[in-house]
Structures are given as structure tokens and as C-alpha cells.
């Protein structure tokens, strides 16, 4: 309630502030520009009056300007430089050919239905300033005045413009603050380029909370003197592709939320930013995007952030708090809650006793004031000190927490997964899950080497670090030198995933469901195309409400089985459904679920159904899949599509078991495998399938 009231108060304040200013500027044109034209003003295009009056005078400054002198009643309108026109109806005035009737029409300027559509005078020797009347053009969409010598400020009135979407005032001599009214244009703005001026002060916030400026693609404020903190609100602009804040005086932290944007260009260099860089999930930027900031700025691609020596409970809590903005209260509440609980249940006094608990599984226990370390096969040489003194850098944040690449003192590298808050609290049930996960060894599953639990319940899972990429990267990222994913390779990847999953479902004493099958959780070696699944079984380490929350997140990714809408527990059938979606993703090459760009939901099974009905089935496959294939039937491609559709059956009981999936994939292999593989693969590691 309180928030709602505050919000409506904000709106009314906003309207109050905005309305009178707007009225001030509206009465202006008729009174002032009539003085500059001697003809009767009523039958003129009001935009022409504006141009010949205040606008020309202001842009020109003290010196006569060659280009602006074309703006003259004795010159046909079509020959006025730097202008494009549109009629009130929306039809543009066509001025292109010198032969067109408009080209020499000397009375066109009198047409009251003509409006300025764009004003483009880059490199035009303009030496004046920006007139506030620029905000009065009703149909002006683009304003390009870059590379001139314009001085003064950006007028507040520019923000009252009703159609402006592209602004380029780069490389001028503009000073002062960016007026807050710029965000009045939020919904229409596509690009704002103010690079290379002398703008100062801090960036204004949009007046409306949660403004998303959904069409804004480019914001270039580089090379100015803008101060203050990072404008966090830009990370709510979903369409932003280019952000340049380089060479300013900005400081403080760069918000993690910036990492969620699908940025293509980014420049935050030469400021005074500090703290931990966000993890950019959809793009990779080099050092040049971040260099020249405070020495405290760290994280990929800059130096790694030193995890404070001794990853003490406090430090971990600090990390969690630092990384998960917005969950500060939850984290500290949880810590407080757990401490209380321990006090109350002191009769159990399990903390002291279970340090000596017998680990039947070849594991050993490191004890001490810091917490508890359980070692599994392959992790025997790790010590508590090794883990606690490792220096780490954030690799990725997932729904289960944060993954660090950590360097051990002896030079080895491990992957540390710090579980988010909300991991299970009951020590016994937790440990039995951990021990079960620690036993799992299969060539298509990432092995858990050790587990650490701190005094306050924080949990670190320690895995091998593999410097290989995810299937998601392979399928959806463009990068130079990326190996071609032909059908033979995709088949090998799909079979590897199915085998890993089959081991979880049927190869263990106590079966495990993966719970989070998706292309981001499949690591692929780019020489051998051997795969390893990650993130399996972690739902069992979460308290039920958090596990439910994570399951529901899977919905937006498109991997969630329909029955999970009602019952939240994952099982082997929901895993098979997610595998089916993943197999479709491998075959079609499209990302399932909500697409970042316009939030559309990509439903892969529906795409296939439509294609089958329209008899265009062959068109759904990724072009790389069909490369070099003579008969999609004989090579098992069509069978794989059918299999994937079977896995995605809406009714859980008719989906095949994962063992059946493995069998079918093995029976329907690509015929000409060797020819399609690169020579390096003949040297592929021992034991990988194929
Ligand atoms: C328009 O052009 C005429 C003739 O070329 C010139 O005398 C006049 O000063 C110009 N007017 C303006 C406002 O530049
Ligand atoms: C010139 O343009 C005006 C306004 O659009 C129009 O009324 C007039 O007929 C045109 N004159 C010629 C000669 O085309
Ligand atoms: C700009 O001004 C300079 C000197 O004032 C002149 O040499 C040049 O021709 C002008 N350029 C344009 C496009 O008017
Ligand atoms: C703004 O966003 C926050 C967090 O996403 C949300 O809690 C709040 O209700 C939103 N406010 C409005 C007015 O939409
Ligand atoms: C980033 O901005 C700085 C300063 O404006 C510039 O020198 C540098 O070339 C830019 N880097 C990239 C990658 O655009
Ligand atoms: C940069 O920021 C740090 C705080 O992070 C501050 O102590 C320092 O004075 C700033 N340096 C400059 C040049 O503004």
C-alpha cells in the first residue's frame, strides 16, 4: 500500500512539474517567429517559421554559415540543406531528383501541412548553440548535428519534443548537465549520442520509476566529464545494444544487472569504477572495455578478484551480499535464523559431534574452527587451507548460486560453486545427498571432488575446472574459429547427454533426477565433442520453497514440462521432457523459451508441429545439421526429430524412458562419421563414446 501511494504521488509530482514548463514553451512560436518573417504567418508552415527564425540564428552563431544560407524563401524548399520533410498525413516529401516537380517549387514553404522530419547537419561549421525551439517541431524524428562547434547547454525543452527518436550531438563543445527531460522521450528514443562534449554533473534518473525505454539501442555518452555513480537505470533498458560511458568521471560499482543485457558494444573504460565486474551472460568484452578504472575493479576479463584470504563465513556472507544485490536482507536473516536455531537445538549438539563422524565413502573430514570439508575420489589431496586460501573469480551466476574459477596455491585450478541462500539446513539429510552426489562417476557427468560447509551453513561444492564451453555457447554464440557443428558432432553431443542422464536415472543405487537439463548445463570439449553435464541433483540441496522457485524459473527457459505447473517436484519424466527440448534445440539451432530481444516465447515443439503440418519439416533443421547429408532419413536426423518430439509429449506417461532414448540414438547414427570429423578427433581422449 505504502509503495503504491508513493508511486502515485511521484506521478502527480511528475505531471505537476512537467505541465507548466510545457505550456511556457508552447505559446512561443507564433509570437516570436512572425517578427522574423515579413509575410502573413498564418498560411506558412510553422516549422519553416521556426527554422528561419530562432533556429537558424541560434545554430549559426556570429558567423554567416554557408549551408544555412540555403534556408531562404528565394530558394526552393527542397534545396534547403540538411532537412527532410513530411506532410501532416505522414507522407514524406520526396525531394530526391532534381527533375521532381517539388525540386523547384518556390511556394512549397507556404504549405502549412509540411513539417521537419529530420535536421542533419554534421560537419557543417555550426558555431552557435542549440535553440530551445528544437523541442517545438511536432514531427522531428532525428537531430544529427555532430562534429560542429556548438557551445552552451542541451536545452531542457528538447525533451518536450513529441517525436524525437534519434539524437546525435557528438563532437561539439556542449557543456552543462544532460537535462532530465531527456527521459520524457524514453518510449520513442532509439539512439542518443553525445560523445565527445564537455557535459558534466551526474546523469539524471528517469522521472518514472521502472522506465524501460524499450526502443533505445544506443546510448553513447563517452568522452565527457560526467560524474556520479553508474546510472543503474540503464540496465533496465532491455533493447540496449551499445553503451559507451568511457572517459568520464564516474565511480562506484558497476551493477551486476548490466550483465543481463544483450549488449554488443560496451565501453566503460577510463572512469573510476571499482568493485566486481558483472558477468556478461550473452556477450564477451575485452580488457579495453574496462581498462583505466580504479585498481579495485576486478573480474573477467580484468584481474581476478582475490577472494579474501580465509574464505571465512563472514567473507562468504559478504560475497553473497556483494553479488546478489537485493537479497541482502534475506542473506542476513538466514544467517541470524540459523544461529538461533543452533542455540535452541543445543541438546543435539551435532556441531561438535559430527566432526568425528565416520565417512564410509573413502572421504576424509577436515575439521577445525572454520567448518567442515568432505573429500571424494579425486579430491583426496585437497586440504581445508587449500580451499579457503584459493583466489577466485566469478565465472557465472546460476539459479543455484555463483560459480568461481579458483586457483589453488599449488597452481591447480578448481571450480567452486557457492550455493545460494536457501540451501538445506538439516545437516543429516543434506550430507546424505552430498555423499550420494560425491559417489557419482561417469564420463558424461562432472565429478564432485569435495564439499565444504561453513559454520553458518554456507556450502561450497568443489568440482574439476574444465576450460571448455557450454553447449549454449556452441549453438548460439558467434565467435571466430568456432567449430562447425555438423550432424555427426551434434549426434555425439546428444548421445553423451542422454548417457549421462541415463546414468543418473538408472545407473545408481538410488536414482537421481537432474532437475535442470538445459544447454547452459552441458559442457562440450571443442576438439573431441565429449560432453559433461553439470548442476545435477542440486535441487535436493535446497529447501523446498527455494527448489520450487528454481523449478518455476525453468519455465521462462522453455525446458519445463507441462505437469510441473501443477506439481513442482521434478522426476525422471520431467528430465526426459527437458532433454526433448534440448534435442530440438540441438537440431533446430534456436534458443527455447523467452527470447531476450522482444520477450517472445519460442516453443520448439510447436515450431516442429507447424512445419510437419505444412510439409516443410526439412526447413526446421539448422543449416549446419544438413550440411553434407545425403539422406536425412538414413543418417538418423529424422528419427532424432521424432524422438525429441516423443520426449516432449505433453502427457508424461507416453514419454520414452531415457534408456530407450539412448538405445534409439545408438541405433540411428550418422553413417559417415569419420569423414565429418576433424583430424584432431581421431586423437580424442580415451573412453569417450564413439
Ligand atoms: C535570401 O536570399 C536573398 C537573395 O539571395 C538575400 O538578399 C537575403 O538576404 C537572403 N535572406 C536571408 C534571411 O538569408
Ligand atoms: C507548390 O507546392 C504547393 C504546396 O504544396 C502547391 O500548392 C503548389 O501547387 C505547388 N506548385 C507547383 C507549381 O507545383
Ligand atoms: C568551414 O569554415 C572554414 C573556415 O571558416 C571554411 O574554410 C570551410 O569551407 C567551411 N566549411 C563549410 C562546409 O562551410
Ligand atoms: C518497479 O520495480 C520494482 C522491482 O522490480 C517493483 O517492486 C515495483 O512494483 C515496480 N514499480 C512499478 C510502479 O511498476
Ligand atoms: C573506449 O573509450 C575510450 C575513451 O573514449 C577510447 O579511447 C577507446 O578507444 C574506446 N574503446 C573501445 C573498445 O571502443
Ligand atoms: C576513485 O574512487 C575512489 C573510491 O573508490 C576514491 O577514493 C578516489 O579518490 C577516486 N579517484 C578519483 C581520481 O576520483
UniProtKB/TrEMBL annotation:
Disordered as annotated region, ranges: 342-367, 670-690
Pfam families: LRR_1 (PF00560), LRR_8 (PF13855), PK_Tyr_Ser-Thr (PF07714)
Chain intervals with Acidic residues compositional bias: 348-361
Subcellular location: Membrane
Topology term for the membrane: Single-pass membrane protein
GO CC annotations, alphabetized: plasma membrane
Cleaved signal peptide residues: 1-23
PROSITE patterns: PROTEIN_KINASE_DOM
Entries under InterPro entries matching the protein: Kinase-like_dom_sf (IPR011009), Leu-rich_rpt (IPR001611), LRR_dom_sf (IPR032675), PRK1-6/SRF4-like (IPR046959), Prot_kinase_dom (IPR000719), Ser-Thr/Tyr_kinase_cat_dom (IPR001245)
Matches recorded under PANTHER family: KINASE-LIKE PROTEIN TMKL1-RELATED, LEUCINE-RICH REPEAT RECEPTOR-LIKE PROTEIN KINASE PXC1
Protein name, as recorded: Protein kinase domain-containing protein
Amino acid at each position: 500500500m505504502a509503495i503504491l501511494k508513493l508511486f502515485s504521488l511521484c506521478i502527480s509530482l511528475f505531471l505537476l512539474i512537467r505541465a507548466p514548463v510545457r505550456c511556457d514553451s508552447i505559446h512561443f512560436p507564433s509570437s516570436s517567429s512572425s517578427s522574423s518573417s515579413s509575410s502573413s504567418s498564418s498560411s506558412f508552415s510553422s516549422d519553416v517559421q521556426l527554422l528561419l527564425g530562432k533556429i537558424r540564428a541560434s545554430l549559426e552563431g556570429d558567423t554567416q554559415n554557408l549551408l544555412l544560407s540555403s534556408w531562404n524563401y528565394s530558394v526552393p524548399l527542397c534545396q534547403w540543406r540538411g532537412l527532410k520533410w513530411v506532410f501532416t498525413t505522414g507522407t514524406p516529401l520526396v525531394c530526391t531528383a532534381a527533375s521532381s516537380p517539388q525540386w523547384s517549387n518556390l511556394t512549397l514553404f507556404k504549405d502549412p501541412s509540411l513539417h521537419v522530419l529530420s535536421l542533419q547537419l554534421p560537419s557543417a561549421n555550426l558555431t552557435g548553440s542549440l535553440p530551445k525551439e528544437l523541442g517545438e517541431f511536432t514531427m522531428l524524428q532525428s537531430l544529427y548535428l555532430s562534429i560542429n562547434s556548438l557551445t552552451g547547454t542541451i536545452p531542457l525543452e528538447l525533451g518536450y519534443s513529441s517525436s524525437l527518436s534519434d539524437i546525435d550531438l557528438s563532437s561539439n563543445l556542449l557543456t552543462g548537465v544532460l537535462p532530465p527531460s531527456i527521459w520524457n522521450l524514453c518510449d520513442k528514443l532509439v539512439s542518443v549520442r553525445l560523445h565527445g562534449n564537455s557535459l558534466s554533473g551526474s546523469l539524471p534518473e528517469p522521472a518514472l520509476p521502472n522506465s524501460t525505454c524499450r526502443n533505445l539501442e544506443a546510448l553513447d555518452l563517452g568522452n565527457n566529464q560526467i560524474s556520479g555513480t553508474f546510472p543503474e537505470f540503464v540496465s533496465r533498458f532491455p533493447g540496449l545494444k551499445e553503451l559507451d560511458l568511457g572517459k568520464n568521471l564516474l565511480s562506484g560499482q558497476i551493477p551486476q544487472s548490466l550483465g543481463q543485457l544483450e549488449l554488443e558494444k560496451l565501453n566503460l573504460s577510463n572512469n573510476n569504477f571499482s568493485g566486481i565486474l558483472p558477468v556478461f551472460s550473452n556477450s564477451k568484452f575485452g580488457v579495453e572495455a574496462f581498462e583505466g578504472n580504479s585498481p579495485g575493479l576486478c573480474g573477467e576479463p580484468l584481474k581476478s578478484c582475490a577472494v579474501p584470504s580465509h574464505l571465512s563465513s563472514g567473507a562468504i556472507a559478504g560475497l553473497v551480499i556483494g553479488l546478489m544485490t537485493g537479497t541482502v536482507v534475506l542473506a542476513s536473516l538466514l544467517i541470524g535464523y540459523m544461529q538461533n536455531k543452533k542455540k535452541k537445538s543445543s541438546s543435539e549438539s551435532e556441531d561438535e559431534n559430527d566432526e568425528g563422524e565416520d565417512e564410509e565413502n573413502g572421504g576424509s573430514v577436515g575439521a577445525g574452527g572454520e567448518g567442515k570439508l568432505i573429500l571424494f575420489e579425486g579430491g583426496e589431496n585437497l586440504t581445508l587451507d587449500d580451499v579457503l586460501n584459493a583466489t577466485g573469480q566469478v565465472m557465472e551466476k546460476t539459479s543455484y548460486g555463483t560459480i568461481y574459477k579458483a586457483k589453488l596455491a599449488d597452481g591447480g585450478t578448481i571450480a567452486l560453486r557457492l550455493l545460494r541462500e536457501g540451501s538445506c539446513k538439516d545437516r543429516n539429510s543434506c550430507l546424505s545427498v552430498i555423499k550420494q552426489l560425491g559417489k557419482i562417476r561417469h564420463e558424461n557427468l562432472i565429478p564432485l571432488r569435495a564439499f565444504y560447509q561453513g559454520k553458518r551453513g554456507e556450502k561450497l561444492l568443489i568440482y574439476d575446472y574444465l576450460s571448455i564451453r557450454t553447449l549454449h555457447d556452441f549453438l548460439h554464440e558467434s565467435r571466430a574459429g568456432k567449430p562447425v557443428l555438423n550432424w555427426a558432432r551434434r549426434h555425439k553431443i546428444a548421445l553423451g547427454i542422454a548417457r549421462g542422464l541415463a546414468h543418473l536415472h538408472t545407473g545408481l543405487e538410488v536414482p537421481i533426477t537432474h532437475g535442470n537439463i538445459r544447454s547452459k548445463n552441458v559442457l562440450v570439449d571443442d576438439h573431441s565433442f565429449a560432453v559433461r553435464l553439470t548442476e545435477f541433483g542440486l535441487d535436493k540441496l535446497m529447501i523446498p520453497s527455494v527448489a520450487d522457485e528454481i523449478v518455476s524459473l525453468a519455465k521462462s527457459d522453455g525446458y519445463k514440462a507441462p505437469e510441473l505447473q501443477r506439481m513442482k517436484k521434478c522426476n525422471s519424466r520431467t528430465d526426459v521432457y527437458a532433454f526433448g527440448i534440448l534435442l530440438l534445440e540441438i537440431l533446430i539451432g534456436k534458443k527455447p523459451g523467452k527470447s531476450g530481444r522482444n520477450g517472445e516465447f519460442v516453443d520448439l515443439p510447436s515450431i516442429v508441429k507447424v512445419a510437419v503440418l505444412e510439409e516443410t519439416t526439412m526447413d526446421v533443421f539448422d543449416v549446419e545439421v544438413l550440411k553434407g547429408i545425403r539422406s536425412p532419413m538414413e543418417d538418423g536426423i529424422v528419427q532424432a526429430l521424432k524422438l525429441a518430439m516423443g520426449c516432449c509429449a505433453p502427457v508424461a506417461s507416453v514419454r520414452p524412458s531415457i534408456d530407450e532414448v539412448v538405445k534409439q540414438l545408438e541405433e540411428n547414427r550418422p553413417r559417415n562419421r569419420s569423414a565429418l570429423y576433424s583430424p584432431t578427433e581421431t586423437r580424442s581422449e580415451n573412453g569417450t563414446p564413439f
